[in-house]
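target protein:
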Amino acid sequence: MASGLAKQYSVIGVVTAIVLMGGFWGSLHGQTVLLKAVNELGFSRSNVTMELSADLLTPFGLQDLTRIHVRDAAGRELLCQAIDMDSDGRADLVVFQSDFGPGEAKQFQVYEGQKWVYQRDQFKAYGRFVRERCDDFAWENDRVAHRMYGKALETWIREPLTSSAVDIWSKRTSKLIINDWYMLDNYHEDFGEGADFYSAGLSRGCGGNGLWSENRLWVSRNFVRSRVIANGPIRVCFELEYEPFDVAGISVAEVKRITLDAGHQLGKFESFYKPYVRPGQTVQLVMGVGLKKVKGEQLELNPQEGWFLKWEPMEKNAGYQGLALVFQPSVYLEKTEDKLNHLVLLRLDGVHGTYWAGYCWDKAGIITNPAAWKQYVSEFAHGLSSPVKVTVVRNQ
């Protein structure tokens, strides 16, 4: 079902806008495309991910996306990652990243070279199905780490849990830690890299969702299948499939697609729903996205910019963390709550919903206070509404 529900929607990059233009730029590498990228916002933006689709590149003779290379104006080669979104054996897009100053314009050369062979230290995004830990799915980048729960956890003899929450692993290192922490099996203690201080439990945790109907949130159980779409070094993207669950008397199936890029505190969450209804019956679904309630939290909502955030003390005196949800302002309906969660209700595009969620930890040393967290979240939301503009010029 992951390939069924999710494939009904084409992949649309929210980080860049691509426009074709005429002209040329000479190169030593044969067929070359010149990109001009402009940050139209008045603040600096780091780790901006730019996407180049196969439909864009192949007319210029750039056929094999696993061999696409990018250089900046100074001749420095930038890390690239080819991604096969539909699992047909051919890459559909290439991603690379760059930093931009306020209002800065940059140029990049795109050309075909040797197939990429990556080194371990180039990976800044990674995720996997963790069979050895009751079917968890864990994912991370150089700033944050999360996990969600698989079906085996529902019947675990030690500590069973039925929950589709998003858990937090608090890391204060840029290295990838998932495999090491699972191997040592002692990740509730901080030995210098961070730890699992967070307890999502039956709440929505950090951005878990459900469907809102009859003044309550209806949620799925643990996921039953997973599919990795992209696995670093820049982007991790995967899908989790959920068995149909009850929503006010209607059975609804769900596939979640989660995407996290290097250097970002927030990841993209998409849900694709399939309601099982009688012929001729219609149903209007509303998504509810939650952040777990805790004592001592500070909350702020800005529906005009499209975000809801909180700053809160952590368990075990581990410091403070910020959590946030970001969404397109046009889909915002209202904020509400239930016993365990603060909830933002969002309008779906048919049966498809999208939002961004994530966190920061003050002891990671990157975002250390609520004012800095608010600035980060606000600028992230502005970046979604005003993506870096990229024009493409073919070499002749």
Remarks:
- The longest helix spans residues 370-385.
- Confidence is low (pLDDT under 50) at residues 7-14, 17-29.
- The first strand starts at residue 16 and ends at 21.
- The chain has four helices and 27 strands.
